[in-house]
Design the sequence.
């Protein structure tokens, strides 16, 4: 089973939470789409060998 | 006699020790300013006049000589002060701490007088000093302009004499932007140098606690206390004449020409004092925005998880949209951003090898109007939040200290320059900031 598409999840907010208007869900969907696009834009970098838990900013 | 509320921390401390000024007189002067101005500027969400005077009287009776004895401070309302509700500038959310945040405890143990809790963007998740729940904070140089945020309250209180200095936080520029717009020195310390216990988190990868002050010397006096009184300077003091500086050329191009000119004038001034200056360019600079936004959204959603469901209807829409989006981000996106962050940090470390500090603009413009949704930069329209955090993002990724120093004015409004250094090089950065100050 593939992971759910966060864009679809955002749209389902309308159904899941009565306080979410269609307009708000649309803004959330757009925000999620932008964040996913931003994350995708990083994938051309050589990320495979980078430890994401390593210290940041230490002097070399 | 000079209005005591206009004194620097260093001068007030000297006057108190010499017996020319009492802590009570100083606190009364600051409270009088607050009484006069807070209705217009909205720097304080809560003022504890009675408590502040009581602290000052105790200080006077004890002839207190601790490092910040009798110095009145404004604390951002994201940071716990014992017995006072922490609202984080939110609607429908608060907590009542039974003890001070560690940073506040250190300030209080050094003799500081806590005047009150300062304005903030909702949960510090904003950069402009505007708040739909508590009203906007106004710029003391022109109240029709924004103050910058989210450490808006301590910045405005310090600039307007409603405190001698302030304590705030910086995740995406929340100390540096209001420092720039209000003409102050703001210190984003080395990540982890000042404890974040008792501070409402926003994004752990970036959250810092630091001072806002009128001079570099004042900021240094507070930082010394905030770091526990020890020496924060692994790199030690260094005369300006021996400093090697880089200049972040790409960020100069991302500002209005008057800002770029101001930074260049400050850089040339440091050169005349003997510093050596060389241009620096970063191949991964354009990735900083993607890295920062993905990490911040994911971590903010996690930080808010304990109260999110109950608080959901109370958030202002921009904050709620960010948090809802952050909750939906897959872990793979977060990890890609964290990996990319380390590549960017490694590039910054490499490019700064052999340099003591990097100079960069702080805000790309002076403070915009209160109702601004966008700003024009070199003829192009930029959404306000994106424009104001643009120059902040590179140093935020690295975890290194940044001092925002006021360097010039444009049409009567101040703007600042970032001085970025290696871990624990705050004293060097503050010395450079001090060298850029006009003679007082």
Sequence:
């Amino acid at each position: 089973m593939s992971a759910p598409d966060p864009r679809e999840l955002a749209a389902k907010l309308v159904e899941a939470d009565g306080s979410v208007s269609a307009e708000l869900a649309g803004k959330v969907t757009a925000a999620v789409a932008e964040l996913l696009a931003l994350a995708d834009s990083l994938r051309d970098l050589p990320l495979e060998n980078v430890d994401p838990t390593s210290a940041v900013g230490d002097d070399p | 006699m000079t209005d005591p509320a206009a004194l620097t921390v260093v001068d007030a401390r000297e006057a108190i020790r010499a017996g020319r000024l009492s802590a009570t007189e100083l606190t009364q002067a600051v409270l009088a300013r607050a009484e006069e101005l807070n209705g217009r500027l909205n720097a304080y969400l809560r003022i504890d006049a009675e408590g502040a005077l009581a602290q000052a009287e105790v200080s006077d009776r004890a002839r207190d000589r601790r490092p910040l004895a009798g110095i009145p401070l404004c604390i951002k309302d994201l940071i716990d002060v014992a017995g006072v509700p922490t609202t984080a500038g939110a609607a429908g959310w608060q907590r009542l701490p039974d003890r001070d945040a560690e940073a506040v405890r250190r300030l209080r143990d050094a003799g500081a007088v806590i005047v009150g809790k300062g304005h903030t963007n909702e949960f510090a998740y904003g950069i402009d000093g505007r708040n739909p729940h508590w009203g906007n904070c106004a710029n003391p140089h022109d109240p029709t302009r924004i103050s910058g945020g989210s450490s808006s309250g301590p910045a405005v209180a310090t600039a307007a004499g409603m405190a001698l200095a302030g304590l705030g936080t910086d995740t995406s520029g929340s100390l540096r932007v209001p420092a720039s717009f209000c003409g102050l020195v703001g210190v984003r310390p080395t990540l982890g140098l000042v404890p974040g216990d008792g501070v409402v988190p926003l994004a752990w990868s970036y959250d810092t606690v630091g001072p806002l002050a009128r001079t570099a010397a004042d900021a240094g006096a507070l930082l010394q206390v905030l770091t526990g009184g020890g020496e924060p300077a692994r790199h030690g003091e260094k005369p300006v004449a021996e400093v090697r500086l880089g200049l972040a050329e790409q960020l100069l191009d991302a500002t209005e020409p008057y800002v770029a000119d101001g930074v260049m004038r400050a850089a040339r001034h440091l050169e005349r004092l003997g510093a050596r200056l060389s241009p620096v360019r970063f191949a991964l600079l354009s990735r900083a925005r993607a890295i920062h936004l993905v990490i911040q959204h994911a971590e903010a959603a996690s930080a808010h998880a304990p109260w999110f469901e109950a608080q959901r209807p109370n958030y202002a829409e921009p904050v709620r949209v960010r948090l809802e989006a952050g909750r939906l981000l897959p872990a793979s996106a977060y990890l890609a951003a964290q990996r990319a962050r380390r590549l960017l940090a490694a590039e910054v470390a490499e490019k700064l090898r052999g340099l003591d500090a990097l100079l960069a603009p702080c805000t790309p413009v002076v403070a915009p109007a209160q109702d601004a949704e966008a700003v024009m930069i070199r003829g192009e329209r930029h959404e306000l939040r994106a424009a104001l955090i643009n120059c902040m993002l590179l140093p935020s990724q690295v975890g290194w200290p940044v001092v925002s120093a006021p360097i010039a004015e444009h049409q009567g409004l101040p703007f600042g320059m970032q001085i970025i250094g290696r871990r624990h090089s705050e004293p060097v950065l503050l010395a450079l900031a001090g060298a850029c100050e006009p003679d007082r």
Notes: The longest strand of chain B covers residues 402-410.
